[in-house]
Amino acid sequence: MMMREQAEALDRADPLAAFRQEFSLPDGVIYLNGNSLGPLPARAAARVAEAVAREWGEGLIRSWNSAGWYMAPRRLGDNLAGLLGAEPGEMLVTDATGLNLFKAVAAALDLRPDRKVIVMEGSNFPTNNYIVQGLVRFLDRGHEIRFVEKAGILDAIGPDVAVVALTHAHYKTAHLLDMKGITAAAHAAGALTVWDLCHSAGAVPVDLNKAGADFAIGCTYKYLNGGPGSPAFIFAARRHHAAMRQPLSGWWSHTAPFAFDRDFQPADGIARMLTGTQPILSLAGAEAGIDLACRADAAQTRTKSSALGDLFIQLLESRVTGHGFKLESPRLAVERGGHVALTHPKGYPIMKALIEAGVIGDFRAPDTLRFGFSPLYLRYTDVWDAVTLLAEIMETGRWQDARFQQVEAVT
Ligand SMILES: Cc1ncc(COP(=O)(O)O)c(C=O)c1O
Predict the structure, then answer these.
(1) Is residue 150 annotated as a catalytic residue, yes or no?
(2) Is 125 part of the annotated catalytic residue set?
(3) What digits encode the pLDDT tens for the residues 259-307?
(4) N or C end of the chain: smaller count of CB under 10 Å?
């Protein structure tokens, strides 16, 4: 079994260690929930303050031009593109994840008008199902969602399939799907792909163009540390730009927004995926986190995130035995995204007790505890200390206190 001194040695040798000082982390907290909401990058606070005081306060409406507000979705999209294997001009940072999924799936269906089936993983984060169910109902053209699980995906892709809309790293188990292989199978069947990268961007290397992906979406508030509710991203491969159409065609996706024409004419390129006026302060807040993720070496990021997850599993299995935890994530790091999921029938009060002790993870019904291993600010010693506290909570039975049993609105 590893000793704490060995974790300390790993921290000293960590090539990403310097990134930790870029974050504003509260004292006394081990933050293992960057897979849900990343912490505050120090420069984000300064950037938002500048956007409020100087750009809004002094620049007023002139800032749409002078502070680059109008181009912000494209500028941030271009910044992020390299991290995800896209080219400049293929990505935007705009709108919410769900809205981007709506636009991307609608655009993909529109490119395959004679096919009616959308393949999705039923256990995916529910909003994806709800958004596509809403789209299907709204279109009312006889589309059908074929829900499958990981093992059945390839068999579900046949000549009737229009779109395969999947999440690369599963929100609960963290299992990874083979983006390249599934995309190739979809293309061989004549279908298009829409990849959700919410749990991949900033945690797992992604190469959209190498994988041949058609569309992709994802949030910036998890491993990209963009802030609560920060705008999401959307990718469309350049080969689709000329033909793609999306139904939320607002003035920002018009070819000449300031001509104020009566009728819609789509913009060229990725701007076609925009809709309307953007949340500029939230975009300003997201810049610093995206920049940090792009600055970090993607291979080092993945290596460290995997090592932190492996260490957590190894310490859990050697130091928290006999308390009923089961590993829900793949044991092999290559098959896993950035977090590790455990199940326990009393997962909710255990997680609450852990949070009170200063280790923040989260709980997903009915019995999953999630621990995120974001490599830019976590240390190996954080993993060691988190497992020590978990062991203590289980051995003392502190999680059974009445105050941990009350279920709150947000778990
Ligand atoms: C896979 C996945 N898709 C989408 C979302 C959320 O979408 P939105 O940002 O629109 O709420 C999440 C949130 O955790 C998610 O895990």
Answers:
(1) no
(2) yes
(3) 999 999 999 999 999 999 999 999 999 999 999 999 999 999 999 999 9
(4) N
Distance 196 CA to ligand 1 centre (A): 9
Q: Is 258 exposed, middle or buried (0-12, 13-18, 19+ CB in 10 A)?
A: exposed
Q: Which residues of 106-135 are buried (b: 16+ CB within 10 A; e: fewer)?
A: bbbbebbeebbbbbbbebbbeebbebbeeb
Q: Is 385 a catalytic residue?
A: no
Concerning whether 370 is annotated as a catalytic residue, the answer is: yes
DSSP string, 302-365: HHHHHHHHHHHHHHHHHHSTTS--EE-S-SSGGGB-SEEEEE-TTHHHHHHHHHHTTEE-EEET
Gap between the Cα atoms of 327 and 362, Å rounded:
15
Each residue's pLDDT tens digit, 50-94 = 999 999 999 999 999 999 999 999 999 999 999 999 999 999 999
Angle CA 149–298–200, to nearest 5: 25
State the distance from the centre of ligand 1 to the C-alpha of 217, rounded, in angstroms.
10
C-alpha 3 – ligand 1 centre gap (Å): 37
Which of 95, 196, 291, 362 is labelled catalytic? 196
Among 158, 161, 72, which Cα is nearest to 109's?
A: 161
Kindly state the helix (H) or strand (E) to which residue 233 belongs, with its residue range: strand 233-236
Question: How is residue 258 annotated by DSSP?
Answer: G
pLDDT confidence of residue 22: 98
Which two tokens mark 262? 């009566």
The whole-angstrom separation of Cα 192 and Cα 215 is 8
Looking only at the bridges linking them, the beta strands covering 30-31 and 192-196 are: unpaired
3 state DSSP class of 89: coil
DSSP strand pairing (40-41 vs 117-121): unpaired
Whether 196 is catalytic is yes
Q: What is the DSSP letter of 254?
A: B
> Ligand 1 pocket test: which of 33, 127, 224 has the largest number of ligand atoms within 8 Å of its C-beta?
127
* 360 phi/psi in degrees, rounded to 5: -100, 115
Spell out the residues 6+ positions from residue 66 whose beta carbon is closer than 8 angstroms to its own: 59
Compute the distance between CA of residue 143 and CA of residue 230 in angstroms, rounded to an integer: 31
Q: Which of 19, 31, 221, 348 is an active site residue?
A: 221
